[in-house]
Amino acid sequence: MSGELNRLNSTFNSFFNVIRIPNTGNATHDEETPIINESTNNNNNIPEMPGAFTFPNEVNNDINNNQNSTPISNYVSKFFDRLITIFIVSLFLIVFIPVYVFYRIVLYVFFILLSILVKFNRHGYKKINNKHPANTARKFIMKFDERIGNKSNVYSNDNGDMIRDDINANSGLSTLGSENEIQEIGRPDFLECAYSHALFIVKKEIKWLLVYIESDQNNDAINFTNDVLTNKEFLTFIKDRNILVWGNDISESEAYQICNQFKITKLPFLGLFCLTVNQTPTTSGMRASLPSLSLVMKIQGYKTLDYTLKKFNRAFNKYNPALVQLRQHYTNSEGELSSSDSIQRAYRQFRQNLNTPPVIRSLERNNNERAKLQWLKWRKSRLIPENNIDGEFARIAIRCVDGTRKQYKLDKHSSIEELYALVECTILNNIEVDEHEQYQEPENYSHTYTFDLINVLPRVVIPISYQESIEENEYLYPSGNLVISIRE
Amino acid sequence: MTSALPPGFKQLPIAVWSSVAVIATPLCVSILNGKPYFMLAYDPFISKWSQYWRFLIIQLQFQNQSEIALACVLIMMKLKGLERVLGSLKIFKIIILLYIYNLIAIFLISFTFYKVFEWDLFIPSGPFGILFGFYFAYNKFIPNIYVARLDFSNFANFRPFGETMCVDINDKFLGYLGFLLLLIDEGIPSFILCSIGYFMGYLYFHELLPFTDSSLNFIDPLYHKLTKEQTSIPIVNSSNVTNNGSSLSTGARDANTNTNARSNPNQPITGDVDEEYEEDDDYDREGGSREDTPARTLGQQVFDTFNR
User: Fold this and answer.
1) I need a labelling partner for B20 at 20 to 30 A (CA). Which of A350, A432, A474, B283 fits?
2) Where are the beta strands (DSSP E) in A232-291?
3) Are residues A201 and A80 in the same domain?
4) Are residues A34 and A142 in the same domain?
5) CB–CB of B147 and A128 under 8 A?
6) Residue A414 is part of which domain span?
7) Rounded distance, CA B214 to CA A345, Å?
């Protein structure tokens, strides 16, 4: 280690000597310098070449030579040493300071440009974040409806937010007349949710999922929609097999990523998804993997109805047996779990009711149920029948708890409670009444609705009201799109 | 899910032709010593020698290697996604229309600059205008997948216009960079040409120009005829090989697939597959994942987030 340090020290000294010698030579001993170099070369047999180091013995020789030199030459050599040092430092400053100044200028210019950019593009990030996937799915459905001829009073503004056409809805001039003329064209019942949510539903309920992605700029999408998607045969196929459908436009980032993931190079795209189990043969028999949701069939570009259905049928027949087995297995395991849960629940109920006499308990329960049934029959018998007179009804679509969709034409003058009663008596409790019988309202019974009707867009709960008529509610008249939400 | 386009050019004929044309045309022109024909300035080519045909061919090829490389990268990495969105036939028509509109615009600009400003504008050779017309469409129709926010608030002590110093960079950043290089590649002339192209793209995709792709419907039968011929050729070949069973390997493959089909009911049964269904079975052979959310390694996730 010390040897290395000595070597470095001597190298450094020799570097300065090499710089100094020609200067001193030029200043004092012009003829001596080549002699010294020549002598050292001769002594050590080192060829004179650029970058060659002088070794310690050379330095000693130099020191001896210097000791032999005069005081004037020593002074001159020191002077040149300082001069060289000043020169090197100045060189560093000359190079470094401009670079530093340039760096600062660039930095300031960058920040000025950045500030201008930020000033003009302040909302860019928020704009992207505000695009909720469920909202884009609804927007797609709305556009799809418009294209095939179904009318909607919900539209989106430039920011992609869904807005109701309140002017037309309130005036009731333009919409009513035209709305009645337009027949609702059948289309796949698209899920109003994000793609990931659709996958979650399909996995949870072990169902089939059909993903449809199109581009509104592509003419094939229009032809495919007219020839295949709105075709009754295709719709029946989907409905019969209980296939869920999710759709979107490729201009939305979610759909774009799906296309990239499944290597879709041509639109429109139809993909059929279901849970599949891969079986691999092993020495101990077939080993089944965990079920995973997979794309089992895809159609790219415009295809005829026959081709599409043929392909669908083929994929469905191939994968459905495995799916049915999975569903069966899931139902059994869930049944076992729920039975154990119900036993525990019953046991807890039993413990709680130990203090109450059983006869009183059963009487109370029976009386309450009887009164409720009586009330339901009475209420259903008093329901206002559907109104088909133009301009006198509100068209209300209700999505049921099981996912089905029902449409009613309710008298616009009837109260909102009438709508709740309709849902309670016909959808949630399918009560049968005899037309010729007169039903009485049960005494000492006050019926409470255990559900809410929620408007889809914007998401607003329609409050129960005996005074407010349907016509007065902007979300119900002239048309409404509601969802039933059971209270916990 | 990923923001990267599917690799290759499957079912993207226009992207293939464009890429080949961008490379092959300059190569042929160079071999045939035809580069001087692709120079254009109003004086002397038009004013003295009346060589109007130069306007017709000026957009056919790039003269510089860097421009060729940039155009190829942009087509292969970014613009081929537009073919998926717009459709092959439509994009073919748009290329033709943008070519014509840019041709007219270049002529008018060149003429105006020379006569009004007395500036003999050198027109660089290449489809700058067409590419920048599609740049507008790229911005309009291709969605942003992610946005990365670079926050300089703590770093910057010089804030001339406000407190927030954040820059949003999205996944199109690399595409923008490519277009920027193309924009400044030939200096002011390329900047002018690209601006004209972008403006033409804006007008076209806002339907403000008199002729759109629907005006070129007469070429539809020809296009369909051409594409049908091309798609039918490989199917016929593959079916011949399979049906004849001429090679030993084909027979062995059939035997294997039948065995697998018996042992595994979920395996695709190839025996009764129509020719039409071949495209989906290719999907498995390519190693594409059918799962909805294939597992990604941490490295892949980082790569997807920042590098694509």
Assistant:
1) B283
2) 243-249, 269-276, 279-282, 285-288
3) no
4) no
5) yes
6) 378-486
7) 68
**In whole angstroms, how far apart are CA A30 and each of A25, A33, A78, A358?**
5, 6, 18, 130
Q: pLDDT tens digits, residue range A253-279? A: 888 888 888 888 888 889 888 888 777
Measured distance CA(A399)–CA(A482) in Å, rounded: 6
**CB neighbour class for B219 (10 Å; exposed up to 12, middle 13-18, buried from 19):** middle
Q: Residues B261, B168: one domain?
A: no
Chain B contact set for A259 (CB, 8 A): 84
Domain ranges, residue B59: 13-227
The chain-wide mean pLDDT, for chain A, equals: 75
Q: Quick one: which of B210, B203, B219, B144 has its CA closest to B175?
A: B144
Residues 88-117 of B with CB under 8 A from A: 89-90
Say whether both B273 and B178 belong to one domain.
no
Name the residue among A108, A128, A260 with its Cβ closest to that of B4.
A260
Measured between alpha carbons, how far is A276 from A279 in angstroms, rounded to an integer? 10
Q: What is the 3-state secondary structure (H, E, C) of A309-374?
A: HHHHHHHHHHHHHHHHHHHHHHHHHHHHHHHHHHHHHHHHHHHHHHHCCHHHHHHHHHHHHHHHHH
Give me Rg for the CA atoms of chain A.
44
The yes-or-no verdict on residue A355 having pLDDT over 80 is no
The better pLDDT of the pair A232, A116 is held by A232
Give average pLDDT by consecutive 10-residue segment, chain B, 308 residues: 76 89 93 91 88 91 91 89 89 92 93 88 91 92 83 69 71 88 91 93 90 84 70 36 32 35 35 37 46 59 61
ipTM of the complex as predicted: 0.73
Answer yes or no: do A150 and A265 share one domain.
yes
User: Which residues 224-263 of A are in CB contact (within 8 Å) with B?
Assistant: 250-254, 256-263
Which one-letter DSSP state was computed for residue B3? S
Whether residues A78 and A137 share a domain: the answer is no
Q: Does B159 touch chain A (CB under 8 A)?
A: yes
Same domain, B155 and B254: no
Which pTM was predicted?
0.59
From chain A, the residues in CB contact with B263 under 8 A are 279, 281, 286
CA distance B291 to B198: 40
Residues in Cβ contact with A16 at an 8 Å cutoff, skipping those fewer than 6 apart: A81
β partners of residue A275: A293
- Residues B177, B55 share a domain: yes
Q: What is the pLDDT of residues A44-79, one digit of tens each?
A: 555 556 665 555 555 555 555 555 667 777 888 888
Task: Give the model's pLDDT for residue B62.
Answer: 92
pLDDT value at A122 more than 70: no
Give backbone dihedrals phi and psi of A394, rounded to 5 degrees, phi first. -110, 130
